[in-house]
Design goal:
By secondary structure, the protein is α+β, with helices and mostly antiparallel strands. The chain contains 4 helices and 20 strands.
């Protein structure tokens, strides 16, 4: 009888994410890793940088390069054990995490691949995250969260827990994570109403102060009523790039639209104050401000008249002589919301009240 062992005299090999034309992270910690025979010596070079290691008892090996320099030209990577692998790679100062053309493996049983399989525990992690750990990264982008909108309160716990888990598994400290706030979707409603999507956007805004080294791109103004995925992908990417340039690369640029700070009432009007005004508040295209709703103590919201006054917005309505609360862009599709700053970035939807939310169908 002849016994066969797939691990015996195994060639040096690497995961699929390590391949031709990939992007290696310059700067900090850049792992290269794979499998070989237990105890096999492995030598890795990235351009002029070299490192050696020995495969462990389980056949796994890893080397870590630090301080790789950005390069505008291709760099050769060589991995040598009993066999030699040679790749032509690009190393860059970008946060790109892998080969953009790579096919990510899916779960066993593709005949079971149904629309709801993505909601099963571990499916997304095992198919899309686990295969790229511990590949060298600069940061991560999370887009978006529509599937969690019905459990918006739970998301305050889930998202930070996910971020902590990723950062622990990568072992690169609190790397930046930048999110995309839910965009607008479905036909707009004529009157102010509650919305789980609005509540979810509020949680996303709050998470920026809860999760260390995080940021957010607001996209409520560029959604698509007929498609849950916004068409303006380039603008989404541009706004995310502004966040990364400002927060990760410390460029002196504005990366956020106006964020609600506080309110006060004066002469039957509500005065709203903001941070991140970016040189001043503006109404996009010079149109009157839209999607501001105002309420008295009865908690019944009606559309208000909103005007920019210096660094503030003043909201009033004859029907509400004693206002106590204002909401802006508070709906699944606040079509026409147009409060921006002078840097051309939209205000995040907000409410000034902390009343218990009860949802009506969108």
């Amino acid at each position: 009888m002849t016994a066969w062992c797939g691990a015996c005299h195994a060639a040096v090999r690497v995961p699929a994410i390590i391949g031709e034309h990939m992007m290696l992270q310059a700067g900090g910690r850049t792992p290269i890793y794979g499998w070989a025979d237990p105890g096999e010596a492995v030598a890795v070079s990235v351009g002029d940088a070299k490192a050696t290691t020995t495969a462990g008892p389980d056949g796994k090996w890893q080397v870590i390069f630090t301080g790789l320099k950005p390069s505008a030209t291709p760099v050769t990577v060589t991995i040598a054990g009993t066999n030699t692998l040679t790749y032509l790679k690009w190393k860059s100062d970008s946060a790109k995490a892998g080969n953009p053309g790579e096919v990510v493996p899916r779960p066993v049983g593709m005949d079971l691949w149904e629309d709801n399989v993505m909601a099963l525990p571990t499916v997304l992690f095992n198919s899309m995250i686990a295969p790229i750990i511990p590949f060298g990264i600069k940061g991560a982008i999370w887009y978006q969260g529509e599937g969690n909108a019905d459990e918006w309160e739970l998301y305050r716990t889930l998202f930070p827990a996910m971020v902590r888990d990723w950062r622990t598994r990568w072992g690169q400290g609190d790397f930046p994570i930048y999110t995309v706030q839910l965009s607008s979707y479905r036909p707009p409603r004529a009157e102010p109403a509650e919305s789980n999507w609005a509540a979810f956007r509020e949680i996303q805004t709050q998470l920026q102060t809860i999760v260390p080294n995080s940021g957010m791109a607001v996209t409520v103004d560029i959604g698509n009523a007929m498609d849950i995925h916004p068409l303006s992908k380039a603008e989404v990417g541009r706004r995310l790039a502004l966040v990364a340039l400002a927060k990760t690369y410390h460029h002196p640029i504005e990366c956020s639209g106006p964020l609600y700070q506080r309110m006060e009432t004066k002469d039957g009007k509500v005065v709203l104050y903001f941070t991140q005004v970016g040189g001043g508040l503006t109404a996009k295209d010079g149109e009157p401000l839209k999607r501001f709703a105002i309420s008295g103590a009865d908690r019944k919201f009606v559309w208000g008249d909103a005007k920019i006054d210096g660094q503030t917005v003043v909201v009033s309505c004859p029907q509400v002589p004693s206002p106590v609360a204002v909401r802006y862009a508070w709906d699944i599709n606040p079509d026409g919301c147009n409060l921006f700053n002078a840097s051309g970035l939209p205000a995040s939807p907000f409410r000034t009240d902390d009343w218990k939310l009860e949802f009506s169908p969108p």
